[in-house]
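Note to self: the last two entries modelled the partners one at a time, which told us nothing about the interface. This time every component goes in together.
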Amino acid sequence: MAIIRGNKAVLPVAALSVLVLTLSACGSGSEGEGGGGDEPTADCAAYEEYGTFDGEEVSVYSTIVDIEAERLENSWADFTECTGVEVVYEGSKEFETQIGVRSQAGNPPDIAVFPQPGLLAAEVASGNVLPAPDAVEALVDENWSEDWKGYGTVDGEFYGAPMLANVKGYVWYSPATFEENGWAIPETLDDMMTLTEDIAADGTMKPWCAGFESGEATGWPGTDWVEDYVLRQAGPEVYDQWVNHEIPFNDPQIVEAFDSVGEILKNDEYVNGGFGDVRSILTTPFADAGQPVLDGACAMHHQASFQAVNWPEGTEIAEDGDVWAFMTPGVEAGSNAITGGGEIIAAYSDEPAVVAFQTFMASAEFANNRVSEGAAISANQALDASLAQNPLDRQSIELLQDENTVFRFDGSDLMPGAVGANSFWSGIVEWINGTPTDEVVDTIESSWPQ
Amino acid sequence: MEDLGEKFLQVVIAMAIFAAVIGIIMLLVDRAPKSFRDKATIIGFLAPAAILLIVGMVWPALQTTFLAFTDRDGNINGIDNFIWMFTEPTALVTLRNTVLWVILVPTISTIIGLVYAVFIDKAHGERVLKALVFMPMAISMVGAGIIWNFMYAFRGSEQEQIGLVNQILVWFGGEPRQFLLDAPGNTFFLIAVMVWIQVGFAMVILSAAIKGIPADIVEASRLDGATAWQQFWSITIPSIRGALVVVITTITIITLKVFDIVRTMTAGNYDTSVIANEMYTQAFRANEPGRGAALALILFLMVLPVVIYNARVLKKQKEIR
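The predicted structure of the combined assembly is written out below.
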């Protein structure tokens, strides 16, 4: 006690140190709010319907970071300029766990962008997410298919519009390599298997390269493979029953899909060009896995449309370019069933500025703005496909807009988190590591929440 | 600029509130009746910390304990989560691995650290030798995990190796191998990373303790004709017993909580999971907060005796001094 009584300087010193600490903590917090101050350049006519909100803020939280986040922010710059709504954007790789924490702690963002319908459903169950405003629902009814509206719907109530989309199931290849060797684009799954055998017999390269490593999410590219095969071999009805658990995970039709994928991925002769044996799939990061297609160490790489950003800078993506992709074929030629993913944009607040922003995000303007920034597509039917920055994006948009396309959302994103983001991933990992199929599907089935 | 002004104002306000609270506490303590003043002082200055401790630690601990007896929907399900933990094969692997970690990391780290400390004691260039071993301590566990992921990296035998360990294997004519994929060997390769980090800590503490042994005892033993081995067993070890206990218990506690290394290197796949990792996976990825809480509770019960023992030894040492 003597120290405190005897030394009157303690208080100011303590106060000063608090000041210094607080200041240094603030210093790093004010980045990323750039922009502003520009001369009005946008044509505001398209934004009049949203009204004006001078200086009001809307906070947006999502999984999208880095360059993708920049492009996203650019796509609503005009909206901010014309309506005065300041969008405070925050992207985080921890979104999936943090969104629940933040909403339970009473500190949710105004708008959250859910990458998985299953996660949206879990958040809706917690009671904090608000149903979508009428204006948003009207736009979605007008511009999206029933399926896509369904991903934002929980127990019959509509919560949010889809934001962006991606198309899965593409098989990337080098057109030059295929031409040199006289390989043709396969029209059926059997053709693809024959091509695989031919390339392996040829001996110049492995037919496939694959990589499932993705930190704690290791395994997800494998779930894409299985989902593609279930949809193509067993059909959309079985696919729906599977993701809704109306048939067990270890149903023979699912086992068949696993085994068909295994014929390729679990054969040392067919994988893993440029990396090693079958098990090197597990230690190869998914973003690096496609590179051997360019080096000529493997012929094909199965990955979604977003693989476009993983190629080295300057790689030309075109039918006669450095790389191009064909859609994983169906059992019969001319199949039109594809899988894909996307985000749902839902709100925790019903302030007028939030509603205006949410409505804008469901509109064709947003989709057009974002797509013309590059490396993105949307399933919005009002989107102008010619704005796409590369031919594959254009093709993907046309696929999504085609009425004949049978589209199914990524199954693991629809399943409950305990399966879709946990036991399915780790099951695929065990499976590639050597565990037999029936053991793996039984384990996943037993993890399904009762 | 206005942002900065606003922030500054907030800082000033926060500072004022802090000063006001401290001021009020001081004032009240000072004004307390004389007979009660000592107690008032203690309560006055202890209360804020105690309240924060209760809000931040005791209350969550109680909540976690309660959570451990509920299912995913928050209904009480008795000891189901604990039955799961001790019967489900993957959960059992997790427990087995944790036991392996707790036995191996403290013993190996301490032995290597001790031997190293003894050998470099008074050696030429002791400081540099110490710094070399101590440096891994400065790297975060996540960082160490990433570094060792590269060390263990695998490429097929036809490809150029990119991982040092496999490259060495190839140089000596061996086949490259997947160090992190084969259970149960992979757990030992993960344990090696933790040992690599902790040896430095053990070495520094034990080296200091060795230097603290009174010179006359060492000299007396030498005059009595003790061999180096006898000196080590009969003089060094008994003299640094306190430091040894501190080192072993501290590393044990750190090891029980190991999470980052496993998370970054294998994410708990390939039968390498440990309790802390499984706790996170169950609570946040599998949406099973009850199981996560049950694992947390077990972890707490395992750490508790070590902490108590550690505290008692430290207290005893103080009494002796």
